[in-house]
Every structure is written in structure tokens, then in C-alpha cells.
Amino acid sequence: IFLMLKMTYPAEHIHMVTLDKTGKKSFGICIVRGEVKDSPNTKTTGIFIKGIVPDSPAHLCAKLKVGDRILSLNGKDVRHSTEQAVIDLIKEADFKIELEIQTFDKSEDANKNDPRSNGYMQAKNKFNQEQTPNNTMGNMGAGKQATIRNDPKRNATFSASQRVKHVPSNYDEDDEDTRDMTGRIRTEAGYEIDRASAGNCKLNKQEKERDKEQEDEFGYTMAKINKRYNMMKDLRRLEVQRQANIPLGIALAGHKDRQKMACFIAGVDPKGMLASVDVKPGDEIVEVNGNVLKNRCHLNASAVFKNVEGEKLVLITSRRKPNDEGMCVKPIKKFPSSCDEKTLIGRCSICLQTKFLFDQFPKARTVQVRKEGFLGIMVIYGKHVEVGNGIFVSDLREGSNAEAAGIKVGDMLLAVNQDVTLESNYDEATGLLKRAEGNVTMILLTLKSEESIKAEKEVEEKKKEEAKKEEEKPQEPATAEIKPNKKVLIEVKVEKKPLGVVVTGGKNNHVRTGCVITHIYPEGALATDNRLKIFDHICDINGVAVHCESLTTLKVHQLFHVTYEKNVNFTVYRADPPELEKFNVDFMKKSGKELGLSLTPNEHGCTISDMIQGQYPEIDSKLQRGDIITKFNGDSLEGCTFPVCYALFKGANGKISMEVTRPKPTLRTEAPK
Description:
Blueprint: E1 2-8, E2 11-20, E3 29-39, E4 42-52, H1 57-60, E5 69-73, E6 76-77, H2 83-92, E7 96-105, H3 108-112, E8 116-117, E9 120-121, E10 157-163, E11 184-186, E12 192-194, H4 205-210, H5 222-228, E13 235-241, E14 250-253, E15 264-268, E16 284-288, E17 291-292, H6 301-307, E18 312-318, E19 344-345, E20 348-349, H7 355-360, E21 365-370, E22 377-384, E23 388-396, H8 401-404, E24 412-416, E25 419-420, H9 426-435, E26 439-445, H10 450-472, E27 487-493, E28 501-504, E29 515-520, H11 525-529, E30 537-541, E31 544-545, H12 553-559, E32 567-573, E33 580-589, E34 597-602, E35 605-611, H13 617-622, E36 628-632, E37 635-636, H14 642-651, E38 654-663
Parallel strand pairs: 1-3
Antiparallel strand pairs: 1-10, 2-7, 3-4, 4-5, 5-6, 5-7, 8-9, 11-12, 13-18, 14-15, 16-17, 16-18, 19-20, 21-26, 22-23, 23-24, 24-25, 24-26, 27-32, 28-29, 29-30, 30-31, 30-32, 33-38, 34-35, 35-36, 36-37, 36-38
Domain PDZ: 16-105, 237-320, 364-448, 489-555, 584-664
Organism: Drosophila rubida
Region (Disordered): 127-179, 455-482
């Protein structure tokens, strides 16, 4: 499609716009190549923005409008490029593009009837209805011509004509949904839903052909839901029939990031209406009966549930993984045995609307104040270092009921009656206080002053410094505790008793960078001492460094099989996480032929304590004394007893697959001079 425009603008403005589509499906701009007549004798050709997708990066940046001209993209001049060339540049740009934009400044009168609303094109006229003077674009069918006539008094006037060059057979004008998503519409079944609802999501021709599901009364199909919320995880559509006088039975909570709004299920009452469907604490409610709750405060949800139409509730939820960022409170497990009148909202209810406040703020307190014309408190919207943004008491009227009830200046207002103010702005909070009558129940949190917080931080810093100094003090080797990721000197009492250990390391060994323990026998001196563990790196013995890069495997082995008179000193390094490598050894075992391995089981698997060479080439070339076999033919050997391991190895024939763990320590000893 080639678009010809005739425009007269008093001025133009050039600016840079950066769009980042991280987490989004596209940048959200629709482009077209066209001509602009900015005077009777001059015209400009180029790439223009013809539409902006709602909730896209282009829409949310609020710096782009329909009719803007793109001068360059990521530093490349596109004024004379074809439409397809610019599309290819956008596709190649990965997640971020930088646009040089030429915007024409219209007069104020022109802006009143601008076809752009909220940064994107309003809905097309689908029914060929006669256009009103306020409409800026007529029905532009193929081969037709549309002229926009404006008030001659306006400074900005333009006319447009469209000529079709060639439309590919697979072209679908519904590929990009550029409709206005503000306000509400009615479905074919007569139910009122939000324009931004998944029920109003537009499918293109191919998507319609694939979607065999019949739309429900709110316009929902799973194809439309998945397209509307394509960046959300594990989307579900849940239906439940409403029942009179039975509460909905869910507790709601907001996002733990105060800059984000969301509606999470904090708990499900087993006696409530939603106990029969697949909802769990942590699920995010995206929509209910065509009402969009995504990016809305959870405090508004009770009113939405109360006013939804229909004999059934249809919820769209997204189930997040346990470690995903989300709900601001821990799941609620205890619910009251019955709901009173205040809890019941029509035929639905949100149980424990304020309970999560006490889970999040254990020191919060409930205060009742009798309102006799006024409460006697003034509030502000502010920020506190301890809790962040919120509503705070800024002043108290002397002698008021609020002062008598123990309210203090600086208290954070968490709720007024059943309405939570945790994420409210100033106007919402003052509105609640003004509308409250009689005995007003408030949940408040007394916060520490900035001076006391500063003093506490100083005390904590001093304690940390003292603890650090304490750690730096030399420990008694006989009782020294081995701490991760630092060298520690320990003294082990042996008195001619064998150390009872299997180690690996040496210059003719697969492990050349250090000597590491791979098994500790329960009868040995090291097991009695009970400080050393498997995978500990022995850096020196009795002050003599263990240089595995210059000692043979036999020499390293002999260091731990010498008879020591009384005590032995070890310098130990315990890496956290352990420094290891894993690999597989596969071979064919012949019936009646042994593996030639002596194995010693421990909590990590079976350590090879000795080997007989010449049995199997794969074992001779890949395995060595000190390796730990962690899996045998897919079966884990961790914690297995010797009889179990023996039976597995003895009874196996044919193809054998072993997973082996081997230490891979960092070099921590200096080479001998």
C-alpha cells in the first residue's frame, strides 16, 4: 500500500526515541511508505508510522504518534528506503531500536480532532457508516479514495489518497490490532467487557482457522487468551457457578514490588466457592468475566467481583513458578470458620481482606476512633526508609479522638475499615477517611524515627566489624573450625593410628593441581577427629606443601599412609561449592569377567580405593584411584551400602554406563624453588 498525504504544518520537530521490546512480542509500530506535501511546490517522501499497537513499547513510551516520519533507524538513514527494507532492519535489531523521528507540530484546534487517542489509532469504521466531521479518516477500501476535509480556519489541513500496488495473497489486514483499547463494549451474548479483555482480542485469518473453540458469553477462547497475554506463564480459564450466600473464599494480595500492580491469590478457603477449581496461592488473576485485573491494584478487585455480570464466574489466571517474583505476602493457610456480614459482598466475598497486613507487618495495630464530625488526623503521601512509599499521619488535632486513641504523627496508615491503603494515593486515602462514619477502624504501623534507624545501623556495623576481627584472630589448631573458602590450619591427634583416608592427586594423575580427599574410613584418625570432609583440599602436611604437580601419585599416597607419632597438622581449604568435574564411562562388560575395581561406598557414591589394570581398556584409560562413581546404569549410588553396590556391579552384564565425579581443585600451592 502506498500512501499519499497532503499536509500543511507550521513547524516540525526532530527527536530521538529508543524502544526496548524485552518481555514484549514486538515494538508495536506499523509503518508505510508515503509522500507528504508540506507546501504547494514541495513534497517529502519517507517511512511514516501508520499505527501503534496498544500496551506495546511504542505506545508506552508516549513519544510516538501516528503520522510521525522515521528518518533513521539504529543510525542508518531510511528516508529513501523501501518499506520492506525498514521492516528487515527492525527484525535484525534484536530487542532494542533507536529511531530518529520527525514530528509535525499541529495547532491546538487540530489536536482536538486528531485521529490518535492515547498514542495509537482509534478503531476503524467497519460498518461503512457515514463519517461525522470529527472523524479524520473515512472508510479506505481497496481502490477507493478518501478525502479528509477540515475546518478552513485550522492551521493544519491535509488530504489523503490511497492506491494499491500489489497485495500478497497471504496478506491479512488484521495481523496488527491497532484498535482503541480504552472503554468497554458488549459481546455478542450481550455482556459488557473491557475493550482490552482477551474476549475482544482480534485473531488474524490463520489464527481463526486454527481456533476451533466456540467463544463463550464473554468472547473467551484459549487462543484469544494466549494471544492477549502471550508473555504470561501457564494461563488457565476457570469457571465456577455462583451460589447464593456462599463466599468466594479467597484472600488477595498485591505485588511485592511497590512500583508494580497485580492481583494475586494469597489464600483459598476450603469452604469457599473457589475451593472446587484449580486455584493456588500465588496465582495471578488476570481477568474475571471480561474485566481486566492485570496491572490493576488488588484493592479494587472486591468491587469488580461484586459488580460482575452473569450466573457464573470465569477467571483467567496465570500460575507462576515458586521462585518467580510476585506476591508481597506469604500464603495464607488459616481462614475463619464463618464469614460475618462485613465479609460477605453480595454473592461473592473476599475473605481476610486485611489479614495479610499483619503477616507483612507483625507490629501493626488496630485502632478504633469515634468520628464525631471529624477524626482529627491529617495524612500525606510520603516515603520512609523502613517501608518505602505509603500514607502517613502528618498532624493530629489537639484533644481529638484520634489523639486520645493513641495515634501518633508518623504512623503509617495501612487500612481504613475493610479498605487497604497500602498502595493507595493521597486522594484515595483521604476519600476513605472522609466517607467513613461512626466508629472507624484503622490499622496503623508505628515506625522508627530516622535517627533511631541510623543509630541501629551504626550498632550493626560495629558488630560486623568486631565479628570480622574475631574471625581474623588465629584459631587454636586443635579446635579450629574449618570454614568455607579460606585456608585453615588444624591439628589432628593420631598417636600412631592410621589416618584412614583415600586421596587423589599427583603429576602422573588426572588431578595435578592439588591433593583432595575422596573417602574417609570410619575407623581412621580423621573420622575420629570429625572435622575433615570428602572434597577437602589438603594444601600442606606438617608445614610441608603438597606439590602435586611435582610429586608422583605414589608419593602423594604415601604422605597419608605414614605412621605419625602423636599429632599431624594439615592446612585445609574447603571450596564452596565443591570444585568438581563429572563425566561418563561407557563399555561392554563380558560375562564372568570382573571390572578390576575395589570400591568403598560413602554418602557421594562409591570411591575407587584400588584398581587392577588390564581388565577393560575404557576403565584403564579414564578411571583412577580416588574417583567416585555416582551412578551405575542410571541408578544413583549416593548413600548406598556395600552389599547393594556389590550386587549392582556383580550382576551387571552387557552395556555398562557409569557417571564419575572427580575433584578439580584450583592450584593453591606455590611451585617448589
